[in-house]
């Protein structure tokens, strides 16, 4: 028994040292990037074999001297979609829905699908961006109100968009859809009998004690100011009915809690995540699960989702087989920086 305990202790020390070495290398990459982009604030969380590591650089805003940290609030934007798809998978596991069910009977009564669309669109089609439904014209909305472009999308407008659709454009082909995930939120509300806000709190946020992950009331002190590509300050988005597509505000600490649950095959969230990792769409450019991008190379399979708003960019990525995950949050709309960071971290450290 003594030998076994010594071996276990040595193994734990080895794993700890390995994790510490990785965290130092990640920190070095984030630091180097910050030196090149001093006005961009970055918060990164990393989990490996259940051990957590964090690093952050920059201030809450260009006018603030307060440093960002693992608890600083950012917009995770479209990463919200994989939380929504996880909720959909949980509903499947609970036998409330089937992924191959048609959406017709799950929508509120105000939504009346055209006869050409009846018994055509499946729940999995919405979640894998291949429903063929029309989407929100973000470019036009940004022209009207660059600070709050989606706040004008009301339930009445959404109902009109769906009810006026007479044919599906490129059904079965990938076309990124905010409306698709909005409808998934409505489906969740129908089967659970409560609001999306209450569902995501009861099924994800509260069980994981994600105490700094917010759906309403974002008036907290430790939050960044976001900046658009031209350097202008950007408000946090109000999503209204489109909440299931991009509502969530969170931080590196809480998103690491989510990653740990995803990587744990025994949790409800982990079991649901594995369902979202199945391939539901594939073409020459991409493989897609339920809201989850699937990327493979000769050694690894990665599951990833990015988020971009007018003033912030984010990315979540994990490797189930190797039991690691990473969250990257930056306070500028700059997918180039975000993607470069992940590529460098992956190719030089994690691959």
UniProtKB/TrEMBL annotation:
<feature type="domain" description="Beta-lactamase-related">
    <location>
        <begin position="41"/>
        <end position="335"/>
    </location>
</feature>
<dbReference type="InterPro" id="IPR001466">
    <property type="entry name" value="Beta-lactam-related"/>
</dbReference>
<dbReference type="InterPro" id="IPR051478">
    <property type="entry name" value="Beta-lactamase-like_AB/R"/>
</dbReference>
<dbReference type="InterPro" id="IPR012338">
    <property type="entry name" value="Beta-lactam/transpept-like"/>
</dbReference>
<protein>
    <submittedName>
        <fullName>CubicO group peptidase, beta-lactamase class C family</fullName>
    </submittedName>
</protein>
<comment type="similarity">
    <text>Belongs to the beta-lactamase family.</text>
</comment>
<dbReference type="Pfam" id="PF00144">
    <property type="entry name" value="Beta-lactamase"/>
</dbReference>
